[in-house]
Design a protein that fits this description.
- By secondary structure, the chain is of the alpha+beta class.
- The chain has two domains: 67 residues; 120 residues, Protein of unknown function DUF881 (Alpha-Beta Plaits).
- 52% of the residues lie in helices and 17% in strands.
- Strands 4-3-8-2-9 form a five-stranded antiparallel beta sheet, with helices on one face. Strands 5-6-7 form a three-stranded antiparallel beta sheet, covered by helices on one side.
- Helix 4 packs antiparallel against helix 6.
- Pfam families: DUF881.
- This is DUF881 domain-containing protein.
- Belongs to the UPF0749 family.
- InterPro entries: DUF881.
Length: 248
């Protein structure tokens, strides 16, 4: 019996049979749980604080971009006003009326001077349920539209107040379309000076119109064309610079 008793009593390690050891393990567990709770709380606070800082920085950046665009617009208007003043002085310097008229026609054709006259207004916009690039107007779509209007007999065109010339770039910059390196937002309003009586009908016969009818039917983009109720006033191209000069 003594051997059986010894085997029974020695089957477990002493620490497992010790009630003192079980009592001392509970405070360790409590401390571990407390430390874990502290770490989780610290992580939550850091994440919340980081999100708030990121939102503040993003808003500050958006405000700076908005202010820079507004300043850019003011400077462009100022430059256009000074260009008009310079051209007026150039007109006054020419003594020959024929040369003045030739200069006026060239400035109108190149977008170097502001123009006014009858025409049509074309407004295009993204599809109401546009997602990613599906249903969005792209730079190539605007280019086809503009080329169709030139082909229909447009004499001068502006997009959201930006005058177009043969040198005006129309590009994509992220999700925005830039005209003459200025970002524009939809809807895009094109003011077109020309013979309003047949400009729209002639445009409908161009490849640009065919492309836009395809976009409207298949991708939900919208396009409206209406005759201007009064004369349109288009500014000069603010980005126009003198590249060549020849003495007379």
């Amino acid at each position: 019996m003594s051997i059986l008793t010894d085997l029974t009593e020695g089957a477990l390690e002493p620490e497992y049979r010790s009630t003192t050891h079980r009592r001392t393990s509970r405070p360790v567990l409590v401390v571990a749980v407390a430390l874990l709770a502290i770490l989780l709380t610290f992580a939550v606070l850091q994440t919340t604080r980081g999100a708030g800082t990121a939102a503040t920085q993003r808003q500050e950046l958006l405000d700076r971009i908005g202010a820079a665009r507004e300043r850019q617009g003011e400077l462009a208007d100022r430059a256009a006003s000074l260009d008009d003043e310079v051209r007026a002085l150039g007109q006054d310097a020419l003594g020959d009326p024929a040369q003045r008229e030739q200069l006026r026609q060239l400035e109108t054709a190149t977008g170097a001077s502001a123009v006014s006259g009858p025409g049509i207004v074309v407004v295009v916009n993204d599809a109401p349920d546009a997602k990613n690039t599906t249903g969005l107007i792209l730079d190539g779509d605007i280019t086809r539209l503009v080329n169709g209007l030139w082909q229909a007999g447009a004499e001068a065109i502006s997009i959201n107040g930006r005058r177009l010339t043969t040198l005006t770039p129309i590009r994509s910059a992220g999700a925005a379309i830039t005209v003459d390196y200025v970002s524009l937002s939809p809807p895009y309003r094109l003011e077109v000076i020309g013979d309003a009586s047949n400009l729209q009908a002639r445009f409908n016969e161009t490849p640009g119109a065919v492309w836009w009818h395809f976009l409207a039917q298949n991708y939900g983009v919208t396009m409206s064309i209406s005759q201007a109720e009064k004369d349109l006033n288009l500014p000069s191209d603010a980005g126009m610079t003198l590249r060549y000069a020849q003495p007379g």
